[in-house]
Amino acid sequence: MKQYFAFQWHITDECDQRCKHCYIFSEDNCKPLDSMNWNQMQQVVDNCSDMCEMYDRLPYFYITGGDPILHPNFWDLLQLLKEKNIPFTILGNPFHLSDEVCQRLKEHGCEKYQLSLDGMRKTHDWFRKPGSFDITLAKIGCIKKAGIRSVIMSTVSGANIKEIPEIVDTVVEQGVDIFAFARYCPTGEEKDTGMTPQEYHDLLDICQQKFEKYESEGCNTYFNKKDHLWTLYDYEKGIFKIPEGVEEGMIYSGCNCGNCHLTILPTGDIYACRRFESKVGNVFEDRIADVWLCDPMEAYRDYTKFQKCSKCELLSFCRGCPAVTYGTTGDFYGADPQCWKEVSTL
To answer: Is 76 within 8 Å of 38 (Cβ atoms)?
Structure first.
C-alpha cells in the first residue's frame, strides 16, 4: 500500500476561544482573522493531490483552524473530500458538536475528532474558557456514539505538568480512543516551557506506569507516545531497540519536520511545522511538489547541524522537538531543552 502524506490544514482563524498557548494570537492578539474562500479551498485540495501523485503518496488531511466547523464552506469541503475518497481527521472544539453533527461528520468520512484537555477543570478553563472542560467531556460521548474515534490531546508545560497523570485517568474513565500529549512550544516573548529535563522525565515515568497498568487491565484507550522524547525514554528502559540493518543517514521516525508532513495556513502560507515560524512557500503561488524539495525545506533535513542530536545514536529515530528548541533558544538546531541525555557536543 502507498504511504500517506499528512497535511495539517488550517482553513480559518475563527474560534470560540482565545487559548493562552494558541499560536495564532501568540504575538498579536488583535490580528485579523484569516479564512480561505471556497475557490481557494478547492485549489488546496488539487495542489495537495498533485504533490502526492508526484511522490506516489496518498493525501491525509488534518482539518483545523481556529475551529474549522465555523467556516461557511466546512461541509462543502468535507463533501469534496468524500467524493475524492480522501481520509481526514478534524482538530476542533466541542462547542458546536451534537449527536446530529457528529453523525453528519461520520457520513462525510471523518475518521477521528481531536479535542483538547490542558489540565483538570480549573486549569483547563483558565487556559481556554469557563465551562470548556465539562463541555469537552460531554462531547466525547457524541463523537463515540457516531462511530468516530475520539482523540484527546494535551499541551504540557510547567503550568499543568502535575495534572497530566490525572488527565490520563480521566480519558480512560471517559472511554477516549486515543490520548497523547506534547510540550508547549514557547512563542512571542515567553521563552520557557517551565519544565526541567528531570521534571519531564519524571512525568514520562509516571505516565508509563499508568499506561502499563491500564493496558494490563484491558483498557481500550491507545496511548500515543507523540512526543519524540518518548523514544529516548523507551530506549533507556529497553522498550525500544534500534533495529538491525539501519542505514546511516536514513530517517526512520521522530520529528516530522521536513519528512512526511506540511502545514497550510488560511493565508495559503506553507509551513514546514506549525509550531514555529517556518514558511517555505504559499499554496496559491507555488506547486507543493516543488516546495517539498526547495532549499528552505532541505535546510530542515540537514541533520548534521543538530548540535546534540547529531552526536546521538537515536538521531534517526528521535531528534526531540526542534520547534520547542527554537521557541526556547531561537536555534532550530540547538539542544532540546527537556532532553536529559548526556551527549558530548565536542
So the answer is: yes
Q: What is the pLDDT of residues 103-138, one digit of tens each?
A: 999 999 999 999 999 999 999 999 888 999 999 999
Neighbours of 276 (CB within 10 A): 21
| Set of cell numbers at residue 323 | 520547534
- Strand-pairing partners, residue 62, are 8, 89
Residue 342: partners with Cβ closer than 8 Å, 6 or more residues away: none
Q: Could you tell me the pTM of the whole model?
A: 0.93
Phi and psi at residue 229, to the nearest 5°: -70, -15
**SS3 assignment, position 62:** strand
Distances, alpha carbon 47 to alpha carbons 3, 53, 93, 98, 278, in Å? 18, 10, 27, 33, 19
**Residue 273, CA distances (Å) to 11, 179, 223, 300 in order:** 16, 21, 23, 10
Alpha carbons 166 and 153: distance in angstroms, whole number: 14
Instruction: Measure the CA–CA gap between 303 and 328, rounded to whole angstroms.
Output: 19
Backbone φ and ψ for 199, nearest 5 degrees, come out as -60, -40
Contact predicate 36/68, CB 8 Å: no
Whole-angstrom distance, CA of residue 307 vs CA of residue 82: 44
Is residue 153 exposed (0-12), middle (13-18) or buried (19+ Cβ within 10 Å)?
A: middle
> Cell numbers 485540495 correspond to what residue?
45
**Closest alpha carbon to 13 in 72, 71, 89, 61:** 71
Which residue(s) pair with 58 in the sheet? 4
Quote the CA–CA distance of 198 and 219 in Å, as a whole number: 29
Sign of CA dihedral 115, 90, 22, 234: positive
Tens digits of per-residue pLDDT, 295-325?
A: 999 999 999 999 999 999 999 999 999 999 9
Measured between alpha carbons, how far is residue 258 from residues 172, 249, 254, 325 in Å? 34, 14, 11, 16
Which one, of 341, 297, 295, 294, lies nearest residue 319 by Cα?
341
